[in-house]
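Researcher: Next entry in the queue.
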Amino acid sequence: MARLDPPVVETNEIESNEKEAKLAVSAASAGGGAGAGMAGAELSPQSSPRDNAQTGQSAASAARGSVSTIIPTWNRRDLVMRAIDCALEQAEPGDELIVVDDGSTDGTGDALAARYGDRIRYHYQANAGVSAARNAGMALAQGRYIALLDSDDLWLPGKTARQRQWLDAHPGYGMVLCDVVRVDPDGTPYDTFVRREVLREDGWALRWLLANPSLVPASAMFRREVFAATGGFDTSLRTAEDIDFHLRVAKRFRIGVVEAPLVEAMRGHDGLSAEASTYDDYVRVFERAIAECKGEVEDSVRHRALAATYARNARGMLIRQRWVDGWRLARKAWRLSDDPELRRELRGLAPFAAKRFLRVLLPA
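Model: Structure for this entry, 364 residues:
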């Protein structure tokens, strides 16, 4: 495997595929609102001639559905190898693994070249953030299905096979998810995110996801058409980009669930979700999603979901000692919904804020 720095050949591939993606977006937009082009017809499970020519797949592997795994990384030379190893263990003939190095300075490229050779595709780019790195990998992808894997997460045995089989068997669906075991930085599990508790049934999932749009990217597998239609992740967002992507996919494609814990996601370390800007990004993303689904989801559901979002993020802002911003969101939540449970939660913010404020004034 040769290090591509700068990756001239793959950059040209990106430009070519991005042109195709823009054409697909235009075609999808012409079809109307949520689920345009999906409600009346199933997504074709057949690869195009161009796909098969590019990947050199046999007819048998093309019928099965090849998978392109995208792993973005930045200065995680040792950690990313764990992710690569677990992905390679599940790869089948015709699959590919693309590592997008987002400007690492710790020798990641040389280390991966020495360990993996041509078993992976390595793409180097100047640091542009995780969203840009994921998008670059998806633009390079040649498989029918795309699977994302962050460099600090792991796939459990059978993850790729089960989700591949699910999409093969459900051609009318764009994405399939699975349950996630959340672990601390030492790798100790502390809870499991059970998708079915949020997404109550397979199909058009937007109304369910408005209640909890959380997405662990490593838990998703989706068709290339999903990337073409959505344009991938919003690079203007430093955080909450996964939530934004999830909601935009749910607006246009059916989503299903493999009811099994097939991913380990590390939390509580140096991830972006710990940043203070997370609350602002989350609110921004959710307000946009609520506005865009007007007329597609009942107003009562939209208002309750937005009020709950304001309440959750008000609490987070109070923790960050952003007193004015926290109370501003709490007032918005109160005006939006008269739900008794939500209002009990909002009333509880007053003593919570008082305790936090006293800790600031009277540190131990």
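Model: The first strand starts at residue 67 and ends at 73.
Researcher: Noted, moving on.
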